[in-house]
Amino acid sequence: MVKLKIAGLWVGVIENVELENWTIPMLKEEIANRSNCTSDSIKLICSGKVLKEDTVDNDGKVQNLIQLGIKNNSKILANRVTSPQEGISLKQHMIAEEERSTRLSRLKTAVTALAERHADGSLPIEDFSIEVEDQNGQKVRLGSETDQRAVMMGLMLLAKGKRLIRQGNYKDSLEVLSMGEEAFSLCDPKVLELVDNVPILQIDIVWCYFMIRDIRWLSDAGKRLEIARAGIERAHGKDFLRLRLLQGGRYPELAVHLRLELLEGVVAYHSGQLEKSRKALASAKAKFVKLQVSDEALSLVMSMGFGEREAKRALRMNNQDVASAIDFLVEERTKKRQKQEEDIRRRDEIKEQKRYGMTPSKKAVDIERLNELVSIGFDKELAAEALRRNENDTQQALDDLTNPETSSAIQVHIESRKRKRKEQARNSAIEKVVGMGFERSKVVAAFQTGGSLETVLQILTEQPEADLAPAADNMQPAVNSTTAPQDGASSSATLPDNVSADIPDLMHNVEGRDVEMEEELSEDIANADALDDYDIEVNIEGEAITEYLNLVDSASSCGKMVLSQ
């Protein structure tokens, strides 16, 4: 029986080693048991040589430790290497991390692209526009164009972060919320003083810390909660008076304040401030009790035709008052219907703006100013072109419209654009039909008869070949003709629904778009509402309050503080 001194992966002495009976696999297994790793992940080195477990003697037997030159008190270095199974897991982990990193990078790029396209009034390439609204659904313009873009980015990332929290993906949510914090930091602080989105974002970040249960973020969590507390008090007013006025006497903020106080209590506990922790947790518990919805109240609200989730939300935000909750839900449904009508109106407006084209600085024609000119008797197409040329300057557009020479030139330009647009549409339609397998000359002849794309297809599939005029054989339309007009103007002529014309000046910034990620972001925005930031299911918070109150009581009775792992 001898002793072997081990260093490296595990440091210590292995006693009672039988050198004649032990082999390298047996020694590795012993070290693996003591170092909490697998034996195939250990490499042993003694006297500068790697100890291989498959070394055999002249008889073909695996050599024992004596045969390998190991003696009493020999020093052996144990190193960790990647086992085959761990190698596969590590590779899978690395692939997953790479995919995660790529997705987060795509998310940030898509948010930036959407904000740049929608914050400056440019003509959107989608059939929707993203706008900043207050809790009443009124459009808000915050500071400069840079401020507006920063706020828009921050709000999109906050919405995505909250969705990830609801899915339980706290690690990714933390990354996304950090991006949101960075975006908000680009905005003038004065612009954000009276809104609570930024302090709510800080609370959400600390909530992710808490759910990941990593005490290393303790000091950072404390600083963030201080910022959140100051921001909430500034935005909601003393004793929440400002918020109560904005919300018509309702109490939407209770769940947010509950989470804030819970997190303050947790940080105080882990910092050894027991009384501060107890006070914060007790206040959070009182709010938790207020947010508990009784079965009777829930049943009464649901009997009015509302779903369980919306009924609970309404009762929580209205201090459990059934009548107020029902009024709230009726009001919310009215707002939702009005929002849907506004979205439809805005989509139609965007389609109309796309017909008119963009100004020299890539802005859309202002529909309100256009309607003003139309209301005093000007032709709509003529007025739109005048506004487009003059960067939506109503007075300059009016000067052009009342100048006979300029007005005539605009009219000629519009007619020219109509002809070019029709030619582009026709060429595009011809290429579409030729792509179906029809002979080009016959397709061109069929289009000369006039009619829609359906009519042309009917002619090609039903009429005898002799009916198609061969005189059109020499006509060669421009393939995929997308030539823009000389000055970048856009005609107001409407294309048929079944024919698409690729207009470059209306499709700026399309190349390189991450359509999938942008659609995902726009869906998050479309499915959210003004009160989503306050709509928190507090079941996890309730359990955490109980857990930490017990910890505080236990620590107080022991007279000391023990940090949780």
What is the count of β-strands?
5
Count the helices. How many? 20
And the CATH topology of the domain at 2-81?
Ubiquitin-like (UB roll)
The CATH superfamily of the domain at 2-81 is: Phosphatidylinositol 3-kinase Catalytic Subunit, Chain A, domain 1
Order of helices and strands: EEHEEEHHHHHHHHHHHHHHHHHHH
> What fraction of residues sit in β-strands?
under 5%
Mean pLDDT: 78
Q: Uncertain spans, ≥5 residues at pLDDT below 50?
A: 465-510, 560-565
- Rg for CA atoms: 35 Å
In which order are the strands of the major sheet placed? 2-1-5-3-4
CATH class of the domain at 2-81: Alpha Beta
- Classification by helices and strands: mainly alpha
What overall geometry do the principal axes of the alpha carbons give?
A: extended
Distance between the termini: 40 Å
CATH architecture designation of the domain at 2-81 = Roll
Biggest sheet architecture:
5 strands, mixed
